[in-house]
UniProtKB/TrEMBL annotation:
This is NADH dehydrogenase. Residues 15-310 form the FAD/NAD(P)-binding domain. The lineage of its organism: Bacteria, Pseudomonadati, Pseudomonadota, Betaproteobacteria, Nitrosomonadales. Its cofactor is FAD. Pfam families: Pyr_redox_2 (PF07992). GO terms for biological process: aerobic electron transport chain.
């Protein structure tokens, strides 16, 4: 069994419930079983599979199944249990769970020693017509199938595609769509609508310059400082950011990438314990996109932060169950970030945010990070603490 500093087990078989089977939940599962193979772990998640959500833009090249791992597979691999459910847990319910040490799911009482909230942050939702799609749609249908189905129903003169949102997700989908159209020799016009003056505004300007140059190379129209209002039949209604003047453009299909829904975050102390009325719930932890840690560590909504929080919460659950109860604070800082710009290009930073790299070096970083997580899914932990 690997050594975990400041962990002296009391030889008790822990019962642990993990709500959420995304990056943070799976990272916690692997970490817990690595140090306590006999732990009884139940994952509560409404889906039948773990989804590598950061790969969804690649479904314009690969089948969606390539990025799904069924919870039955994880059950056979790690010996955990999976319940399909999406419990609603407010502060009062969590406080009650802390006192009662059980959670009711699908009319079943799940007793636990520790509860880990890792359900993620919900995607922003708006009313959609049949030719409007967002990230939720890609969770059930491959991008290639979805786009082909809509374009096949259009006349060639109507094939205009709008991508709304120039953050990391929108940009990755934008470039995958552009290269998909080229590979399939589909004559269609592609545009990006973004509310800021440059794409990838959350990153150094080098990201924006690199991505926008590649957009120009691919003849992608760019509408900066422009807000999406609605889609009506074959037209998209937009609004200029400065003048607020509204105008419409032809658009057979619109892809909306509006980010995460605000107000759904769970506060935690520096050790990952949920805070309710400024007091930590000793046996309830949180990790992933749904969590904000009160520490100097990274709270970005990225897969690498979710994985690191999941691992830290798991280690602290074990330490809290042991004889010493000396917990580890969250100090992780992202070591880099890469935005894919299609099958053979990317832009990112490594070590320092000002150290912007593009092309093959950025692609190599991306491949290494993805390979590291794939190893974790098999139970092999190559992450440095």
């Amino acid at each position: 069994m690997p050594f975990l500093p400041f962990y002296l087990p009391r030889h008790k078989q822990l019962k642990i419930v993990i709500v959420g089977g995304g990056y943070a939940g799976v990272a916690a599962l692997v970490t817990l079983l690595r140090h306590m193979p006999e732990a009884r772990i139940t994952i509560v998640d409404p889906r039948s599979h773990h989804l590598k959500i950061t790969h969804l833009h690649e479904t314009f090249r690969y089948p969606l199944d390539d990025f799904l791992i069924s919870f039955s597979t994880l059950k056979n691999r790690f010996g955990c249990r999976h319940i399909r459910a999406e419990p609603s847990l407010d502060d009062y319910t969590l406080w009650q769970c802390q006192n009662d040490k059980f959670l009711t799911v699908n009319d079943e009482i799940l007793e636990f020693d520790y509860l880990l909230m890792a359900s993620g942050s919900p995607i922003a939702q708006i009313a959609k017509q049949k030719n409007i799609f967002d990230l939720e749609d890609f969770m059930t249908t491959a991008g290639s199938d979805l786009l082909s189905r809509v374009l096949d129903a259009c006349n060639k003169s109507e094939r205009v595609i709008s991508v709304i949102g120039g953050g990391a997700t929108g940009i990755q989908f934008l470039f995958e769509i552009a290269y998909f159209l080229r590979r399939q020799k589909i004559d269609a016009k592609l545009r990006l609508v973004h509310g800021e003056d440059r794409v990838l505004k959350q990153f150094p300007e080098g990201f924006s310059a690199y991505a926008q140059t590649r957009m120009a190379d691919l003849d992608i129209d760019f509408y900066p400082n422009t807000r999406y209002r609605s889609q009506e039949a074959g037209n998209i209604l937009l609004e200029e950011g400065e003048t607020h003047a509204q105008f419409s453009l032809p658009s057979a299909i619109s892809f909306l990438f509006l980010g995460r829904k605000p107000g759904a975050l769970r506060s935690a102390n520096a050790f990952g314990q949920v805070m309710v009325e400024r007091k930590p719930l000793q046996n309830i932890f949180t990790a992933g996109d749904c969590s904000i840690y009160d520490s100097s560590g990274s709270n970005t909504m990225t897969a690498q932060s979710a994985v690191r929080k999941g691992m830290l919460a798991a280690r602290n659950i074990l330490r809290h169950s042991g004889a010493i109860k000396l917990l580890e604070p969250y100090f992780h800082r992202d070591l880099g970030y890469v935005v894919s710009l299609g099958p053979a290009d990317a832009v990112g930073w490594l070590a320092l945010e000002g150290n912007v790299v593009g092309g093959m070096p950025a692609l190599l970083i991306k491949e290494l990070v993805e390979a590291q997580y794939d190893l974790l899914l098999t139970g092999i932990d190559t992450y440095l603490v």
